[in-house]
Amino acid sequence: MTDIVTGRLQAAFADAGVTGWLHAVDIDSGAQVETGADQPVCTASVHKVCVLVTLHELAAAGVLDLTEQVECPPAGRTSGPTGLAAMLDPVRLSLRDAAFLMMSVSDNTAADLLLRRVGLDAVNRTTDRLGLTRTRAVYGFGEMLGTMREDAGPAGARALTDPHVITRLRALDPARTNRSTPRDMTRLLTALWRDEACPPEYGAAARRVMGLQVWPHRLASGFPFDDVHVAGKTGSLPTLRNEIGVVEYPDGGRYAVAVFTRTAHTAAVLPAADAVIGTAARIAVDALRAP
């Protein structure tokens, strides 16, 4: 059965023109489906889940208050097409509202506001505590984007369509950027959903925010049912499309899934590469739910 499922996953990735790595686990029974689950991968914005968990862990410990207000002037914002990154005027908001923007629309400015408050070292201490031995935050999100600008050279964003430039981007090398594995990421989600990452009150707050992500084109596309809830976080960089999340069924079944993909194509829009994340997740979850 496992070989059949693995074959179906690999065929789905191949049909979409991507290389893919996946780990899925039944949060309650521990049953697993995997292909390349221990492959080092670039997390991109998926690492924002680690920031989210760290924020709520520190709030539970009394180190910070989630209602604490932070200022966000227009100058110096991390670039990005959503949220605070795209706004023009000064903003004042709470830490928990910054977390909402970070998770719902993958706001890079909000993520870096939180990182400045909690610290990169704290994020790594949290992942270490949870046993995520292959997971490491090396850069803030603005810093990571800065390495891409440096590595792309004077041609700027236009160079990111050149496959030769892509090969020299530190942000796409798991040895030199924020990284994890699919198995580590499902371990993180399992800890969050089982209230092992944070006390129940804070875990519930973090799970709520993860359930507010607006993007339906990756993980959620595999579960188009009104009574199935998907809470997730995407991550994207040139040639990379990722998502991790938890799929919850009305019968109480809950499944942590991590899907990471890479393609040789440098186009920013590749619908098949997005959709296969949902396809692969559905294959894995169906296998876990099979009698």
UniProtKB/TrEMBL annotation:
Molecular-function annotations in GO: hydrolase activity
InterPro entries the UniProt entry points to: Beta-lactam/transpept-like, Beta-lactam_cat, Beta-lactam_class-A
SUPFAM superfamilies found in the cross-reference section: beta-lactamase/transpeptidase-like (SSF56601)
UniProt keyword list: Hydrolase
Pfam families: Beta-lactamase2
Span of domain Beta-lactamase class A catalytic: 22-261
Domain of life of the source: Bacteria
PANTHER family: BETA-LACTAMASE (PTHR35333), BETA-LACTAMASE-TYPE TRANSPEPTIDASE FOLD CONTAINING PROTEIN (PTHR35333:SF3)
Protein's recorded name: Serine hydrolase
Organism, scientific name: Streptomyces thinghirensis
